[in-house]
Design goal:
Number of domains: 1
Strand content: 25-35%
Largest sheet: 10 strands, antiparallel
Distance between the termini: 5 Å
Order of helices and strands: HHEHEEEHEHEEHHHHEEEEE
Number of helices: 9
Shape: globular
Strand order of the largest sheet: 1-8-9-10-11-12-2-3-4-7
Structural class: alpha+beta
Radius of gyration: 20 Å
Length: 389
């Protein structure tokens, strides 16, 4: 068994075994936690990067899964997407616009969408993160991408599925590719820091946790509707379903829970912004309730907007931004939306003033992204085969 497979096997609770009967809500909650561990330690009000709104097993080379036919992913792009490290203004026509105007337009667009339903709520999330690799004196960035698919059944007695697929890593830019060639064109890397003065031999001796062409596969299985199961957003689907489509009531619902990773009870506008955006990207909502969430966001202070952007998979949209400062420098959280339909497309994190562990990034670089598509479907994909031992 590979290191990737072993990490996932150890992280998965015993009751996630497909042959073990278990309460549906518990199964879904534990599945979310299993796929989100381990997490890097962070201080209070830390930068949040974990699914949904984060990385989970990023630096542990998240496990690949069985390939079987599903609906097309975000934009249908291959790993790498559209210019994953594009900086603001680089080859694009972007316009600063009023964030409140954008959010109210998105609310109107969402309200006009038809009510849809189905047997399963299918969410596909494409993740990407830049990692620095290579020997001292020839460090370079690779873009590591992976994908999660979740089919959540509407009925409690239906079976749903979760799938994780490692899409591998590759040099992020032409300059990184040149450094990679100088490094001997390796197809696997360690994301651990290289000791000062350590050359290629030192880098090669470190445990490899990232691959260009991952071969391992894994999958996890879940059943039941997670109406009572909290996830990383800390809001259950039942709570969302029962709360009226009113901005004030939705705001009160979110503020009644600890938001963000610190769980310190000190909910900031940034944490409210992130949580609402995560819900808009990943949860099934009626048109009226989706519109109400956008109207709620329109009253949050500190949000700015830029029109004419593209997410990492090439989809056009408008970026709603909030600036934050952490121990690794100032950064912006971008929530990319389609203002004509109210669809939440992507989250991005861009470092504006990188320092410490992110000092190698160029200011404005898209360091991390999540690109999401979601819709109701009536069928599940075929049962995947078990992982190789």
């Amino acid at each position: 068994m590979s290191d990737v497979m072993r990490r996932l096997a150890e992280a998965r609770p015993d009751h996630l075994d497909p042959e073990t009967p278990v309460d549906p809500a518990v199964r879904e909650a534990e599945l979310t936690r299993a796929m989100a561990a381990p997490r890097r330690s962070r201080a209070r009000r830390r930068l949040r990067v974990r699914p949904m709104w984060g990385l989970g097993l990023v630096s542990a080379a998240t496990a690949a899964a069985v390939a079987f036919p599903v609906i097309a992913g975000p934009g249908g792009t291959e790993p790498g997407g559209a210019d994953p490290v594009r900086r603001p203004g680089a080859g694009t026509t972007q316009t600063v616009v009023n964030a409140r105007t954008v959010l109210l337009a998105a609310a109107d667009g969402a309200r006009r969408q038809p009510e849809r339903s189905g047997r399963y709520w299918h969410t596909r999330t494409r993740y990407g993160v830049l990692e620095q690799v290579g020997p001292a004196g020839n460090r370079y960035a690779v873009l590591h991408q992976y994908q999660h698919d979740v089919w959540t059944p509407r009925a409690v007695d239906d079976e749903g599925w979760f799938r994780a697929e490692d899409l591998g890593a590759k040099p992020a830019t032409p300059a990184d590719e040149a450094a990679w060639r100088k490094d001997g064109r390796p197809t696997s890397w360690s994301t651990a820091p290289v000791p000062k003065g350590g050359g290629r031999d030192t880098a090669a001796s470190l445990a490899r946790d990232l691959e260009m062409h991952p071969k391992d596969s894994a999958f996890a299985h879940a059943t039941g509707r997670p109406s009572d199961a909290p996830d990383d957003l800390n809001i259950t689907q039942r709570e969302l379903d029962r709360t009226p489509a009113d901005p004030a009531r939705l705001r009160a619902l979110l503020l009644s829970h600890p938001l963000g990773e610190a769980d310190d009870g000190d909910n900031t506008d940034a944490e409210l912004f992130e949580t609402a955006a995560g819900i808009l990207m990943s949860r099934p909502l009626s048109p009226d309730k989706r519109a109400a969430f956008y109207r709620m966001l329109a009253d949050i202070k500190g949000v700015t907007a830029v029109d004419g952007v593209k997410d990492a998979t090439g989809r056009p949209g408008t970026a709603l931004k909030m600036r934050q400062t952490g121990r690794e420098g100032a950064y912006e959280i971008h929530f990319v939306v389609d203002r004509t339909t109210g669809a939440g497309l992507a989250k991005e994190i861009r470092y504006l003033e990188p320092k410490a562990g992110k000092s190698w990034l160029k200011p404005g670089t898209r360091w991390y992204y999540e690109a999401v598509t979601s819709q109701w479907v009536d069928t599940l994909p075929e049962m995947p085969r078990p992982p190789r031992g």
